[in-house]
Amino acid sequence: MRKALIFCLLSCAMAIQAQTARKFTLDLTDDGKAQMVCFLPQTPSGKAIVGVPGGGYSMLSNTHEGYLASEWLNGQGIAYFVVNYRLPHGDRTLPISDVENGIRTVRDSAAVWGINPRDVGIMGFSAGGHLSSVISTLSDFDVRPDFSILFYPVISMDERVSHKYSCINFLSEEGQKDPELVKKYSTQNAVRRHLTPPALIIMANDDRLVPPVTNGVQYYSAMRNAGNECAMYIYPAGDHGFGFGPWFPYHDQMLTDIGNWLKARHTPKPDAIRVACVGNSITDGHGIDMAEQHGYPALLQQKLGDDYWVKNFGVSGRTMLDKGDFPYMNEQAWKDALAFQPDIVVIKLGTNDSKPQNWQYGNEFKNDLKKMITSLRPDLAQPAKKKGKKSKKAAAPAKPLIVLCTPIPAFKTSWDINDDIIANQIIPIQREVAQEYGLEVIDLHEAFTDKADEVQPDGIHPNEKGVRRMAEIIAEKVKSIKE
Question: Which DSSP state fits 238?
Answer without folding.
Answer: -
